[in-house]
Amino acid sequence: MKKHLRFLSALLAVVVGTTLLTGCGDDKDEPVSSGELPVKARTFIGQYYPTARIVSTTKDKDDYEVTLSEGTRIDFDKAGEWTDVDAVTGMTVPSGFYPAPIDNYVSTTYPGSGINEISRETYGYEIELLTGTELKFNSEGAFSGYDR
Asked: Is 0.85 topped by the overall pTM?
């Protein structure tokens, strides 16, 4: 009986371990060529980062993560729309691809600061300033609160 229980326990451990490893494998980033990026994503990079080179591109299911030569990391959805732009610490993201009222609010309320990271969320936008302050804006770019 003890041998049977040990066998069942070992079998159960193998099944659970295999299931966990297989399930985790679905979320793994796989390297892809920059040519596999949707056209919209390549156009975005060319427009807002014209001097940067793409140094790595990975795909996780239908999402893409791109790292540029100057260190910026950009996430794109399967259609090539940006979802997150994260500049190197101490650097700012370029403007023009998100609502202008966000820039107006930041320059008026936080003079001398800039946006280090911006994410597109279901409710609008979330940004992190160079100072580390995190702010939320609605889809039109109106300030809606702090991210705590």
From this structure: no
